[in-house]
Every structure is written in C-alpha cells, then in structure tokens.
Structure prediction request, 71 residues.
Amino acid sequence: GLPPWMQHQVDYRRVNPLVALHNEIVAFCRLMEPREEEMKIREDLVEKFTALIKSVFPNCEVDVFGSQATG
Prediction:
C-alpha cells in the first residue's frame, strides 16, 4: 500500500521523478503539520508548565524552543 500522505501511485513515465519527490515531500509536510487544535493544546501545556515552574522559581523565565517556537 501507499503511505498515508500519498493519494495515488505516481506514473513515472508521465511525471518527472524530481517533481514527484517534491510533491511527496510537500504532502508529507502537510500531513505532519500540527492542526489548529493540536497547537492550542501545546499552548495550554506551555502555560500550565510555566505557571508550575514559576510557582517554584518565581524569578525564572520559560522559553519554548525548536519547532514549537518557530512554528
């Protein structure tokens, strides 16, 4: 079977393989991109963890990093 991000089998006789690869990468990225509700859950978790950490260490600063920070 095909991976979940592929809609149909690619006919390489009609499609340039590099274009097919590009399209597959774009489709995979769209599949893996967090949905709006997932982003909300992450933001809520960051707020909860920040509140918890600041309750123990009031002068600290909490910064998210990586893909969460850069979107």
